[in-house]
Amino acid sequence: MSVKKAICACLAYIWVFTTQAQDVQLTQQYANRIYLNPAFTGLGRQWSVGLAHRNQWPALNGSFRTNQLTADYSFAGTKSAIGLLLQQDKAGIGGLQKLQAGAIYAYHTNLSSKWAFSAGLQVTVASLRLNYDNLVFGDQLSDNGKVAVSSAEANTFEPTNYASFTAGGLLYSDNLWFSFAAAHLNKPAYGFGETTRLPIRFTATTGYKFYARNYTDQGRLFELSFTPSVTYTKQDFFSKTDIGLHTIYTPFTLGLIYKGVPVTGDANQDQALSVIAGLQLEQFKIGFSHDVGLAGFGKQAGGANEISLVFERNDLNKLFRNRSANKFNTGIVCPSF
Q: Where is pLDDT greater, at 271 or 83?
């Protein structure tokens, strides 16, 4: 390992064990919208199953990886939907791992002829543990360069488990949306030996879709559109603002996001330019993104790579507003990725 990478690795581990804003921030947040806000559950599709993988700071000898599985289902003829979220986080070469499973309920309703509202509640159970298999302690190192099999260090850190609650609301129309979610409402306690409390994470997003052209052909929607969006995240002393622009030219999506716009938070915070490319077919979506570090630690550690796969079934009769008072709008115009 080079000196530069060794320094980066040490800084990364210090960051893991000292920061309280430990929730992963996904670049393709709208491909993983259930994680962004439980109020998105069941909107824009009858059902879906999504897979996501994020490899953050790949220049390190042991990057930070996130694997996620999500699923949601909207009950026909009702205003209810349910969702499931499974996520695994691995920090560094092998030390810290987190597993979490969340169950979601969402309720959708019309407020007027132009506006609809969705509310979601998520209950999550998480387990945090240390994996000693790839760790090397000082007493395992010898002068001749060999590494002893065992160490006198006591591996006594038992896994820590906690439950967390998330609530979110979503107000949207045919072109505009406002989303707000608060995670870890109960501020759960976690840690090894000495525990701390996970601070509440607030996430707000908004955006507007401009249609340059759109039409329906043989039951399928084709469009050329431009969607500027803003995301603001705050957790304890950490805050970040992202500004993005997504362009859809069916079936392709291209997105650019400036992450960490220096208008909020620490002036020395990470800044990155994210490039997103996506392909959306009838029941299948695939997206890839790369974060190019512009400033801060991410510039030295190699940014991040992310891929998303989504399988879904859309019911076009539910995606557009129905004039009947008994129907409600489940279409949402936020980007697919």
A: 83
Instruction: Give 45-73 as a DSSP string.
Output: SSEEEEEEEEEE-TTSSS-EEEEEEEEEE
- What's the CA gap between 112 and 119, in Å, rounded? 16
DSSP string, 206-261: EEEPEEEEEEEETTEEEEEEEEEEEEEEEETTEEEEEEEEEEEETTEEEEEEEET-
* Fold observed for domain 3-319: Porin (2.40.160)
The proportion of the chain whose per-residue pLDDT surpasses 70, expressed as a percent, equals 76
User: Minimal CA–CA distance to 38: which of 176, 179, 164?
Assistant: 179
Look at residues 265, 195, 271, 193 and name the one whose alpha carbon lies nearest to residue 236: 265
Task: Answer whether 88's CB lies under 8 Å from 97's CB.
Answer: yes
Taking only the tens place, the pLDDT of each residue in 150-180 is 665 656 667 789 999 999 999 999 999 999 9
Segment 241-260, tens digit of pLDDT: 999 999 999 999 999 999 98
Residue 332: C-alpha distances to residues 24, 151, 189, 207 (Å): 24, 55, 35, 11
